[in-house]
Design brief:
The complex is a heterodimer of chains A (about 220) and B (about 240).
Chain A (H helix, E strand, L loop, with lengths): L4 H14 L3 E10 L10 E6 L10 H11 L8 E2 L1 H7 L13 H7 L5 H8 L1 E25 L2 E22 L4 E22 L6 H18 L5
Helix pairs in contact in A: 2-6
Chain B lengths: L1 H19 L1 E5 L13 E8 L7 E7 L3 E8 L1 H13 E7 L12 E13 L1 H4 L3 E14 L4 E14 L6 H27 L20 E4 L16 H4 L2
Parallel strand pairs in B: 1-4, 2-5, 2-6, 8-9
Antiparallel strand pairs in B: 3-4, 6-7, 7-8
The chains are: A alpha/beta (about 220), B alpha/beta (about 240).
Chain lengths: ~220, ~240
Amino acid sequence: MSSNKPLTVFLAITLALTMSGCISARIEDAREETTGLNANESVVVMAKSYHQGNETEAKYISCVESALGRGKGALRVIPTQQFIDNLFPWFEPRTAPADTKGLTTLMSKPGVPGAVKDMGVRYIIWLDGDTDRVTQGGSLSCAAGPGGGGCFGFAWWQDDADYEASIWDLQDAEASGTVTADYSGTSFLPALVIPIPLIARTRAKACNGLANQLKLFIVSDEAV
Amino acid sequence: MIATKLIKQGFIICALFLAACAANVTVENPTIPKPHIDSLPMVVALRIPGEFHNFVHEENVLGKESWTINLGSANALFFEQLFGFMFDDVIILGPDDNALEHTFDALVEPEIEGFEFSVPNQSKTDAFAVWIRYRIEVYDSAGNSASAWTVSAYGKSQKEGLGGSRSLQRAAVLAMRDAAALILLQMNKATKIASLDGAPIKLTRDDPSTIVEVDVETLQNSPVGIFAIGGIDDEFK
């Protein structure tokens, strides 16, 4: 009987790790121009300015940056801070171009086209959006005493991750298109002595989903 | 004996609770990257006020916590570096130095007019925000007041980790970079400092018409797309 205990614990942990909450996803893209990326060209991921009310999480930006640079069809990604510093003061939250008209003006500034060329940046990916907890419910209580402790109850919550990536082509100073990712995930936390978290990693899934679609969008030679 | 021990333990527990409610953040001298702008061919004297070397601001969130931000000499280094990029030659003056002992085209005296920050408990968001308002006085080579400009800068950083000290530090650095960007791109337009190159203004210092007051809001139609932001007063009304 006691020899089965480690196996039971192992199975319980494996079950908890492999099971997760439910996630529904929708990814769409809207192409405005033909794209493509040469071997020596790179992309940079930026958050839209907080002066425009954008709340995109720094963790999400670094996640997309990292996901674009690894796996199948990986792109060359220039770190965001390096790009901002090399083009100071033109990509600070207050001064970054809000549209491609501003980009045309910016690319005519002395030293800017040279700095962009030196870094090999072909596309800027502007991220907008965030992950919000839209609803939650249930109840869970835990107690502990000298003889041990435990939890009982059931809690759940739903997170919505809505992000939009606008792709700007620096070579032609024009917008190439947008990719949107709408993910909705519900997490559950049932507890009968031991809580079993069934977590929906909504933001992480939205990050990987958006990054994979961005890779396809940028390298695709699909005509408009 | 037992009572003494209990009192000692009580003090330790109280001290731990108090420490948990107070946070000290020190901003280590932030650096500005070399900007892509052409420097102005003039000699500018920059008077660094005493407070730029030891600026400390404390904010008490009523009944909750106390935050202290220590900018140390970050402001002094920030302005020295910034003006070094903006002008061909910069003379650094201390608060008591006699400017008339030097030859220059313009004298600039910055000061901190306001400093505020908000923490997530106050703003009910996940972000720390810092507002800095600098007032920049410009004088000609004869000491006549030429213009005064108020720069409202803003930095925001989302909370990371348990304490949030690093986030507040980052928000302060972002606010200083925001000020740097605005000063680099708009100072000449706002203060007409380039017109003081070798030529003192004609009017005397006593004449109030010599002072040109410019605020950032008047510059929002700039072709470089500067965002005008609400100042400290607007945010805390």
